[in-house]
Amino acid sequence: MTVTQGNAAGGIGGSNAAEQLAQIRPWADPAPAITLDERMARIDKARRLTRDSGAEALLVTAGASLNYFAGLAWSESERLVALLLPVDGAPILIAPRFELGTLEAGLLIEADFRLWEEDESPTALLAAALRDKGVSRLAIDPAMSYLFVDRIARDAPSATLVSGAPVIDGCRMVKSAAELALMQQAKSMTLEVHRRAASILRPGIRASEVARFIDEAHRAIGAPGGNAFVIVQFGLASAYPHGLPGDRALQEGEIVLIDTGCRVAGYHSDITRTYVFGEANDEQRAIWELERTAQQAAFDAVEPGKPCELVDYAARAVLEKAGLGPDYKLPGLPHRTGHGIGLSIHEPAYLVRGDKTPLAPGMCFSNEPMIVIPDRFGVRLEDHFHVTDSGAKWFTEPQPSIDRPFG
């Protein structure tokens, strides 16, 4: 019996993990880091937006926004680490005393420290800082957990707490040239990892083996944390946007859907490729072509000043004309067309009905109007673009065909 090997001429199959990893070299032209001047300009803008909102200070929680303003990569936990940014005066970092050395080593801006011991209340310490600064109206990072918001409300009852989303989103939604360069590097690296992952496929390979290779390849090419995430789906699992439990083995003629990304200086990539291991049948080919048409329609609909939701409408119009949907009904597109991306993999604004945020140069989005055929398969092509003065520009060129996914 002859065991077929996918479509080596199209870059699918024909190699192995060891061979591909041996060929990968660290990224040759890394993008420059965000400068201190740019971080200070971000803080100045945040202060202006905070003042315009009627608040006297912004509280930034650990996570993506703390990284954005202060360069401090720190995840939120049950221990409060937060940056208080008054509209006037130095930033104040509220943090556990025992973490001081680590925090000082990671912090990229000047800030005053207010430190708490393990048996003390960090929100009481914050309340004292609010009194010292005369803050009666505090804008709070929308990513802060209710655990801390509730405690702040109890410890600072004279302060009015309001959403800091207009400030945070007003700063982070539009990316600078330096941010775009870091995102371009991350996405280009992931696309190269995708290409190499396709080449290691063989009959019987398990999704977990492909996922491990993608992690190792991301590390080898220059992403120190490896995968930010990875989804590997074969056959029926591809009919579910985030897959099915289990570890499927690849068979000839099955759809392969791989969605993965990495981080460069905290900035995300997130790219999906869909193709067939072996020869695509007529149904797979027709749905793939329709998906590619919908993705292009979404891209073509981008125009500065127009609301985000129009991009979603453009993709759905293609699918509905072909008899899919309507709306979120299956077979069709079960989710939004795209999401914002940057230091968070999903961030405002969103390409979805009801999001009327005006498109503006520097905004970055995924473009992924997935088609699901229930109980059969799914096709998702995902690339990212940034808005320009005249429309949209791809970070990565879309997949050219189902047979030759990388040209």
Which key phrases capture this entry?
alpha+beta, Creatine Amidinohydrolase, 6-stranded mixed beta sheet, globular
CATH class of the largest domain: Alpha Beta
Under CATH, the homologous superfamily of the largest domain reads Creatinase/methionine aminopeptidase superfamily
Number of extended strands:
18
Q: Strand order across the biggest sheet? A: 4-3-2-1-5-6
Please indicate the percent range of residues in DSSP E strands (runs of 2 or more).
15-25%
The topology string of helices and strands comes to HHEHEEHEHEHEHHHEEEEEHHEEEEEEE
> What structural category characterises the helix and strand content?
alpha+beta
Q: Any chance you could write out the topology, listing elements then pairs?
A:
Elements: H1 17-23, H2 36-52, E1 57-61, H3 64-70, E2 82-86, E3 92-96, H4 100-106, E4 112-116, H5 122-133, E5 137-140, H6 146-155, E6 160-163, H7 165-172, H8 177-199, H9 207-221, E7 229-234, E8 255-261, E9 263-264, E10 267-268, E11 271-276, H10 282-300, H11 309-321, E12 338-340, E13 347-351, E14 364-367, E15 371-373, E16 377-379, E17 383-387, E18 392-394
Parallel strand pairs: 1-5, 3-4, 5-6
Antiparallel strand pairs: 1-2, 2-3, 7-8, 8-11, 9-10, 12-13, 14-17, 15-16, 17-18
Helix pairs in contact: 2-7, 5-6, 8-9, 10-11
